[in-house]
Write a structure and sequence with these properties.
The protein is α+β, with helices and mostly antiparallel strands. It folds into 2 domains: about 130 residues, no CATH class; about 220 residues, Beta Barrel (Porin), CATH 2.40.160. Helices cover about 20% and strands about 45% of the residues. The chain has 11 helices and 24 strands. A 12-stranded antiparallel barrel has the order 13-14-15-16-17-18-19-20-21-22-23-24. The longest helix has 19 residues. The chain is elongated and about 95 Å long. It starts with 8 loop residues before the first strand and ends in a 15-residue tail after the last helix.
């Protein structure tokens, strides 16, 4: 296939450029061919969900009015047909034209370039190559090698592996060099299929994937149309479907283990240990749900609680959700407490900053009823180091200020491990602090910032509600434990 997005193209003696193609704004791809009899044919591709048959006919008429004398073929594709292919090679076969006249997002041309890369690799490496896969989010080609050719007597043949990397880089550059500066894919070599979302580049890799998938979740494999997300989407170009990142990338979870300290003027210092976890599940493309839980001790008290989020999110822009939680605190030396919260939450994503807000109503037993609210600003100094400051107001502690830090070092073998510390101060000498470790379960390759925006909503509602009744203040004729 001749890539000519940036070069003048002539079809049947007519220069094809922006003026002509402006009549085909709803087409996601236009290609040209020459028949065996020397006749030029232009094929226009569009999505059925976007363009009606009548609109396609009008589109062709507009192209003829602008002087195109070549024959025009119209192809309307159903969403089901576009989503059916399971390799990039089988996807771009539907658009195998000799000349590319119009590729709205570059998705088709880039797909052809990746297929050309796979063919060059197959020709040069033969059975040393087990499969070629594409990660759309990171724009990375994963080359899975046959370990039999690189490991002898338990020893890795590093020189041969380095040579394979040079071969892969050379072929990748040669295949994609004509696509412009905005498309510079990365390259990874491995001996097994990574545990991340991938799509096979060629049909042979699709067949090999069946063997790898025995140890891999089916959800880690995505259809070829999904791969278009990483380098422009046919659906986005044609407005056929929403191809932006989903509210939740995949089912994921986290668990935090922390030590807590609380102090007020009227209560002795309180120490405790808490485990807080969350499970986040994708719903519709723009919606998700998260379930939170907390369990632990607060001095001589025992705490348990649950919470839930139902939210809309665009991970590149914002989150809006409804929240609810319930926590019970069984006090050995005083009356038990319980608190429920119903409210809403919102997050705004501004590059390395996140602005978070929450609010609602709190009610329960042996706690003050009333409204609660909070506002935090988080700054990602790096994608794996977050600092935050904020303020909150609730019926128990009135106004408090808080700050925190979380760091994900990306340690080998425990990429989802992070360390955190946070604290708050308020009226009446109130102060609290927590320090602990958190384990994220899901995509091992994610940065801390991406985990917070593409996976789980950061807040654990059950933990927040527990903190609203911890510390032992005197409320509603309730005598707190450890009062001095």
């Amino acid at each position: 296939m001749t890539k000519s997005q940036n070069e003048p193209v002539t079809v049947a003696g007519h220069p094809v450029g922006g003026a002509l193609l402006s009549t085909a704004t709803k087409a996601f791809y236009i290609g040209a061919d020459t028949t065996r009899f020397g006749r030029s044919v232009v094929t226009v591709h569009a999505a059925k969900s976007v363009v009606s048959a009548g609109e396609m006919t009008a589109l062709a008429a507009g192209m003829r009015e602008r002087g195109l004398t070549a024959a025009i073929r119209l192809r309307r594709h159903s969403d089901k047909r576009l989503a059916r292919p399971r390799s990039i090679e089988s996807f771009v076969k539907m658009f195998g034209h000799a000349t590319s006249l119009h590729d709205a997002t570059g998705a088709i041309d880039r797909g052809h370039a990746l297929v050309a890369f796979s063919r060059a690799m197959r020709a040069e490496l033969g059975d040393k190559l087990a499969g070629l896969y594409w990660n759309p989010r990171w724009r990375t080609a994963y080359i899975v090698l046959n370990h039999k050719h690189f490991i002898r007597d338990g020893m890795l043949r590093e020189a041969e592996l380095a040579a394979m990397e040079e071969v892969a880089l050379r072929n990748l550059v040669a295949s994609t060099s004509g696509l412009g500066e905005d498309f510079k894919p990365a390259l990874r070599l491995s001996f097994e299929l990574p545990s991340i979302a991938l799509v096979p580049i060629d049909a042979r890799s699709q067949a090999a994937r069946a063997l790898f998938s025995v140890l891999r979740s089916r959800s880690l494999m995505i259809p070829a149309l999904g791969a278009m997300i990483g380098f422009g989407s046919v659906g986005a170009a044609a407005a056929a479907e929403d191809t932006s990142a989903p509210a939740v990338s995949a089912i994921n979870g986290k668990i935090a283990i922390m030590g807590n300290y609380s102090d007020t003027d009227s209560v002795e210092d309180i120490y405790g240990g808490i485990a807080a976890g969350s499970l986040t599940i994708p719903g519709d493309h723009r919606f998700g749900v998260q379930f939170d839980g907390v369990l632990g001790t607060d001095h001589d008290s025992h705490v348990a609680g649950v919470g839930g989020h139902f939210f809309w999110r665009d991970p590149t822009k914002a989150l809006v959700g409804l929240t609810g939680s319930y926590v019970v605190k069984n006090n050995d030396n005083a009356s038990d407490q319980s608190a429920s919260r119903l409210g809403a939450e919102g997050e705004l994503y501004l590059d390395q900053f996140t602005v978070s807000a929450r609010g609602g109503y709190q009610f329960g037993s042996n706690v003050d009823d009333g409204t609660y609210s909070g506002l935090d600003i988080s700054w990602y100094a790096t994608d794996n180091l977050k600092f935050s400051v904020g303020a909150a107001n609730d019926p128990q502690f009135d106004t408090t200020g808080r700050a925190g830090v979380e760091f994900q070092p990306g340690l080998f073998g425990v990429a989802g491990l992070s360390f955190f510390a946070d604290g708050a101060v308020g009226d009446d000498g109130f102060a609290t602090a927590s320090v602990g470790v958190r384990f994220y379960f899901g995509d091992k390759e994610k940065t801390l910032k991406d985990r917070h925006r593409y996976d789980d909503p950061e807040e654990n509602l059950a933990l927040n509600t527990f903190r609203s009744i911890s510390g032992g203040s005197v409320k509603n004729n309730y005598t707190a434990p450890y009062e001095t």
